[in-house]
Amino acid sequence: MTVPYYEPTLAGRERQYLDEVLSAKQLAGDGRFTKACHAVIEEKTGTHKALLTHSGTGALDMIGLLLEIQPGDEVIIPTYTFVSSANAIALRGGVPIFVDIRADTLNLNEALIEAAITPKTRAIMPVHYAGISCEMDTILAIAKKHDLIVVEDAAQGYGATYKGKPLGTLGALAALSFHASKNVIAGEGGALLVNDPAYRLRAEIVREKGTNRAQFFRGEIDKYTWVDLGSSFLPSEIVAALLLAQLEEADSINERRIALWESYHSALAPLEARGLARRAVVPNACRHNGHIYWLVFESGDLRAKARDLLLAEGITASAHFAPLHNSPAGKRFGRTGSDMQVAEHAGDGLLRMPLFAHMEPDVIGQVADVLKKL
Fold it and tell me: Which residues of 61-87 are buried (b: 16+ CB within 10 A; e: fewer)?
C-alpha cells in the first residue's frame, strides 16, 4: 500500500452540504454556502471582507488588477514560490523581481528587499511558505519607508499566525488557496482577503466580471452594468458547500497536522545532527499550521537517494518548487534582485514528507527508519 505525500481529508459534513446544494438547485456562485464561507473566514481572520474565488490563482490575479499594475511596474517576490505569484504580475505587464529566501523558513529574505527596490517598484509580495510566516514587521516597515503596498500570498497559510495575527491580514490584500493539496480544501478554490477597506468596492466589481452586480443585489442601484475591468472569479455553490464543511473543522484539521509535523521534527532530528539535511525552523513570532514538513538535503543526489529509498517502501515524498528566476518564463518576464544561492539549494535539495490530517502516525516512524539507511 502506497502512502501519498498528500491526500484530502474529509471533515464530515461534505456530503450533507452537497446534497443540500443539489436539492436547492442553486448551483451558481454567491448563494447561501458562499455567504456562509465568507462569514466564517471573516470571523476567523478578522479581515474587512473575504471574497471566495475559483482558485488561489484567481485571488492573485484579482490582486494584480486591483493594484492597477502597469507595463514596467515592478513587484518584489521570492523566487521560491508557485508560478501564480509571478503570473499575477506578468499578466498585467508588470515585472516580478525575484529575491532569494531565508535558509531557516524558505521565506522571502527581508534583508535583501531594500537592495531590490527601484523607482519602478510598486509592491512587495511575501509568500508564507509551508504555513510559516515571513518576517512581516520588517517587510511592512520597509514598505512604509518606500511607500509600497504589501500584498500577501498566503495560499498555504490558512489558520497560521504571525504575532497572533492571522496570515493574510497583515497586508492590504491577500490570497488564500483551498486546493486539494492544502489543509482546508474545496478541490479547487481560493479567497481574496480585503484588509484595506479602500479596495472593497472595486474588489467586488473585479470579481463580478467588471460589473457592479453586487451593488445591484444589495439594492444600492436599480440595474447593473459594466464599469471596470474584471473577470469571472466566482466559484460555484458546489465548491462553496464542500469548503464550508472544511472551514467548520479547520482548527481540528490543523491541530492534527501540527501534531504530525512535530512528530516528524523529533524523528528526523538525527538527519540534521549528522549533517545530511536541514529541518525547518519556526520563529518564535510564528504559529504554523502544519501544512508541509520538508527537509533540505545537502545535495540533489542525496535527495534522490532519500526519495528512492522511501518509494521502495511505498512512501511517496516529493520535491517542490523550482526557483522561478531560472525558468524560461522567469527569464523572459522577470529579473533577479539578488543572488539566489539559498533558493537554488532548496530547489535541488528539498523533499516534502507525506503529511495529511488523517495520516497514521506510524508512517513517521517508517520514514525515519528508511532514512536511517542514508
Answer: bbbbbbbebeeebbbbbbbbbbebbbb
Q: Is the pLDDT of residue 1 over 70?
A: no
> In this predicted model, what pLDDT tens digit does every residue of 281-306 receive, in sequence order?
999 999 999 999 999 999 999 999 99
Report the C-alpha dihedral over residues 86, 91, 92, 96, rounded to 10 degrees: 20
Computed from CA positions of residues 39, 45, 46, 49, in that sequence, does the dihedral angle turn out positive or negative? negative
pTM of the model: 0.96
The three cell numbers locating residue 228 = 471596470
Q: Report the sign of the C-alpha dihedral through residues 205, 21, 60, 129, in that order.
A: positive
d(CA 117, CA 230): 29
Q: List the strands of the sheet with 161-162, edge to edge.
A: 165-166, 161-162, 286-287
DSSP H helices, the chain, are 14-24, 32-45, 56-66, 83-90, 113-116, 136-145, 200-207, 213-217, 237-248, 250-267, 269-273, 300-312, 328-333, 341-349, 362-371
| Element counts in the chain: helices (H) and strands (E) | 15, 14
Q: Is 10 within 8 Å of 256 (Cβ atoms)?
A: no
The grid coordinates of residue 158 equal: 490558512
Are the C-beta atoms of residues 240 and 34 closer than 8 Å to each other? yes
For residue range 36-76, what is the model confidence (pLDDT) as tens digits? 999 999 999 999 999 999 999 999 999 999 999 999 999 99
* DSSP secondary structure letter of residue 119: T
**From CA 135, how far away is CA 225, in angstroms rounded?**
42
Angle at which helices 14-24 and 32-45 cross, to 10°: 140
**Cβ-contact 37, 244 below 8 angstroms:** yes
Helix 300-312 with 341-349: angle, nearest 10 deg = 30
Residue appearing with cell numbers 533577479: 336
Q: What share of the chain is helix, strand, coil (3-state, %, to 5)?
A: 40, 15, 40
